[in-house]
Structures are given as C-alpha cells and as structure tokens.
Amino acid sequence: MKQARPFVVNALVSGLIIVVPVYLAVLLLLKAMGSVLGLVSPMAKLLPDWLPATNILALLLLLVTCFVVGVAVRTAAGRAARERLERSLFSRLPGFALLQSLTQQLTGQGQEKVWKPALVEIEDALVPGFLIEELEDGRVTVFVPSVPTPLAGAVYIIDRERVHILDIPFTQAVSTISRWGAGSSNLVAAMGTGASPKGSPRGDGIAGAPPPALRS
C-alpha cells in the first residue's frame, strides 16, 4: 500500500498538469466564442438552418483574429507594443514569466541561457536540472524538478563547476524527467559534449556536501 501511494499521487499530479491547461483553454475558447456570437448572428441567418453557422462563424472569427494578431506582433511595431504590454501588465500576473519562458523553450524560441538542461552535482549523484541564471558572485541558480512533475521541485544556488550544461533540447530533458528517468543515458552522454557556464572546468568528479536548497 505504501509503495502504491506515491505512484497514485504522481500519476494524479501528472494528469492534472495535462488536463487542467487543456480544460482551461477550452473554457476560454468557449467564453470567447460566446462573446462574439452577437457579431456573427446576422451573417449566420444567411446560411442554411441545418448548419450550426453561428458557432462556426464565431470560431472562424476567433481564429482569424489570432492569426492577424500573430502576424502583427512579428513586425517591429508589433514587437515593441507586445514588449510594452508585457512589462506594464502581463509581467505582474503571477506565473506569467515562468509560463512564457517554458512556452518559448517548448517552441524552440527560448533564450540560450535560460532553462538550459544540465546535470547538477548534488551529494554523490548527478541530478537532472535546468540552469536558470548566473549570479554576479560566480555561482548559478539551478532548478531541480521532482519526478515526474517538471514544474515542481527545488531551487539551488550552487557553484558553477558543479553544473554541467547538456547539449540537448529542452523537451528531451523534460521527457526524461516525466518518464521517471528513462533515457538518462542520453543525458549522461550529452554531458561530454556540452559546455559549462562561462568556460568553467568540466569533469565527472562529485563534490562533497550538498548546497543549501530553497524548496519551492
């Protein structure tokens, strides 16, 4: 019973991480469609009664709007407006910066020094984690996720030589963590081809005592 409880809890949390965002996205889509039904109702009356024209036109209107906004933010003026909006509004929303960073990494648009996959020397082991930022005193901040939920874990401020950057995609590291470590051999192999932050010495030596952790 004690062995089954962690499995049930981890499986439940992993399912929630997938189901809740999808559920919220569907709710937001339905809410947005409901807000534009009045705009498309006159056009829907021109179509056959057997066709759910109102809902179809509302969905098409939302998709066209999203497409136009996406094209607009690719321009210089659009990027500047988006950055101003993010600084003045979105950045104040709890979790927005984290969600934005993760989304950029998953789509391959993340910054090179943010959420870099790494193997971190903790006690007598190499632990999968992510480089978050580099500090002025020469140390680095790393996030070590728990298994199998990559969005929960511990934050460490650690010496840079204990962090081995991996030359792998962000999604590959997340996949290994989500699968209870399956595929870790690829992470270890990538440690030999990656580069440590700012040219710090590499090696497989394990340091002694673990650094202090800030539990999230």
Characterization of this structure:
The structure is a single chain. This protein starts with a helix and ends with a strand. It is of the alpha+beta class. It folds into two domains: 4-92, no CATH class; 116-215, no CATH class. The chain has a six-stranded antiparallel sheet with strand order 5-1-2-3-4-6, with helices on one face. The protein is built from six helices and six strands, in the order ααααβββββααβ. Residues 194-216 have low confidence and may be disordered. A hairpin with a 2-residue loop joins strand 1 (116-122) and strand 2. The longest helix has 41 residues, at 4-44. The protein is elongated and about 70 Å long.
β-strand number = 6
- What is the beta-strand fraction? 15-25%
Please give the order of strands in the largest beta sheet: 5-1-2-3-4-6
The major pleated sheet works out as: 6 strands, antiparallel
| Helix content percent band | 40-55%
Order of helices and strands: HHHHEEEEEHHE
Shape: elongated
N-to-C terminal Cα separation, in Å?
28 Å
> How many H/I helices?
6
Rg is: 23 Å
Question: Concise description?
Answer:
The chain is α+β, with helices and mostly antiparallel strands and 216 residues long. 47% of the residues lie in helices and 17% in strands. Helix 1 packs across helix 2.
Secondary-structure map with pairings?
Elements: H1 4-44, H2 53-72, H3 76-88, H4 96-106, E1 116-122, E2 125-134, E3 139-145, E4 153-159, E5 163-165, H5 170-178, H6 184-191, E6 213-215
Antiparallel strand pairs: 1-2, 1-5, 2-3, 3-4, 4-6
Helix pairs in contact: 1-2
